[in-house]
Design goal:
By secondary structure, the chain is an alpha/beta fold. It has two domains: 242 residues, Alpha-Beta Barrel (TIM Barrel), CATH 3.20.20; 98 residues, Sulfite Reductase Hemoprotein, domain 1. Strands 8-7-6-5-4-3-10-9 form an eight-stranded parallel β-sheet. A five-stranded mixed β-sheet has the order 11-12-13-14-15, sandwiched between helices. Strand 5, helix 3 and strand 6 form a beta-alpha-beta unit. Helix 7 packs parallel to helix 8. The protein is elongated, with a radius of gyration of 23 Å. It binds iron/sulfur cluster. The site of iron/sulfur cluster (SF4) has 12 residues, from loops.
């Protein structure tokens, strides 16, 4: 490994460990109304099935806080309640069995409330994430430091000191900005000052295209520095896309191995099938697995067969069809409209065969 990861304190978020030598986890936030438990549970299960390891839900009111109990019962990954200002909601969330809180103790109305919150969190041994975002930076801090990386870090440290004054160290921190350079600078600064685990993210990064690039550069640069213990990609898109991008960032840096590696060509004038469509559909239907498996989706028989033969399973496009290779051998010709189903079924078959060994 070319990067040396900074060793942070380890905290437990339900059945996930964050920090220390625990693998870097990928998390996201639901985009459903938390008060609607059934819809929220269904989204969490979908996210679980594609590799989400920690889920956060917004808790804007009492009804949402009470809904957490139902949600918690039905899911297997740890759940974190995201609360702003109202510490009473945090107390209900803790009673409802959440595995972590995201709340900034400096915003809940004074030391008595911080004391009560910390005692409740300590009673259940759940971590508190302090999450400072540039968009909601404390006005006093903004005046003193400007909307800068230093301002983000100072704000986070002020919240941290409130928890530490209660002898509470079960802490995770994030300092997010929409600007990639500011985000990188803030986390680097913060990492020099604390040994708490860090939750990385570029906030309000944008839609799938821009947001993926900003997150990959911001989160990726920090991870390459050895900074970061859990990551959340923020996209104006379905949360499953955030998980896929998060996992891909870890895989691209070699911080996560296993799973299916998809290789596809960019296509050119030689391609005579709709390869974009085939790739999109295959991506959507890929099974989740820790097995190393290489799948090649290539547009033509010029460069296609070489890559397809090298993969566990692969196709090389022809005219309205493609030839399919499995474990290096040409197996059959498949019509274009059956390519997705055929590839997925071959992948599932290989996974099944490996289970039998
Ligand atoms: Fe073009 Fe064929 Fe190469 Fe794809 S594999 S880029 S279609 S030459």
């Amino acid at each position: 490994m070319i990067y040396k990861r900074k060793k942070t304190r380890q905290v437990r978020v339900g059945n996930a460990l964050v920090g220390g030598d625990a693998p870097i986890t990928v998390q996201t936030m639901t985009k459903t109304d938390t008060r609607d438990a059934a819809v929220t549970i269904s989204q969490i299960k979908e996210l679980e099935s594609i590799g989400c390891e920690i889920i956060r839900v917004a808790v804007p009111d009492q009804e949402a806080a009470e809904s957490l109990k139902k949600i918690k019962k039905e899911i297997s990954i740890p759940i974190v309640a995201d609360i702003h200002f109202d510490y009473r909601l945090a107390l209900v969330a803790i009673k409802s069995g959440v595995d972590g809180l995201r709340i900034n103790p400096g915003n809940i109305g004074g030391p008595k409330r911080v004391h009560e919150l910390v005692r409740a969190a300590a009673g259940k041994d759940i971590p508190i994430r302090i999450g400072v975002n540039m968009g909601s930076l404390d006005p006093e801090i903004a005046e003193r430091y400007g909307r800068t990386a230093k301002g983000l870090v100072e704000s986070a440290l002020t919240h941290v000191s409130l928890l530490e004054s209660e002898s509470y160290y079960n802490i995770v921190i994030s300092v997010k900005a929409t600007s990639v350079p500011v985000t990188i600078e803030a986390y680097r600064l913060l990492s020099e000052k604390v040994d708490y685990p860090l939750h990385l993210g570029v906030t309000e990064a944008g839609g799938a295209r821009v947001g993926t690039i900003k997150s990959a550069i911001g989160i990726g640069s920090l991870l390459a520095d050895g900074i970061g213990d859990t990551i959340r990609v923020s996209l104006t898109d379905h949360p499953s896309e955030e998980i896929r991008v998060g996992l891909q960032i870890l895989k691209s840096l070699g911080l996560r191995t296993g799973g299916i590696e998809l290789i596809s060509c960019p296509t050119c004038g030689r391609c005579q099938i709709d390869l974009f469509k085939v790739l999109n559909e295959v991506e959507k239907h890929l099974p989740v697995t820790d097995e190393d498996l290489k799948v090649a989706i290539m547009g033509c028989v010029v460069n296609g067969p070489g890559e397809a033969k090298d993969a566990d399973v692969g196709i090389a496009g022809g005219k309205g069809c493609a030839i399919l290779f499995k474990h290096g051998k040409l197996v059959k010709k498949v019509p274009e409209d059956e390519l997705m189903e055929t590839l997925i079924s071959e992948i599932e078959q290989i996974l099944e065969e490996r289970k039998q060994v």
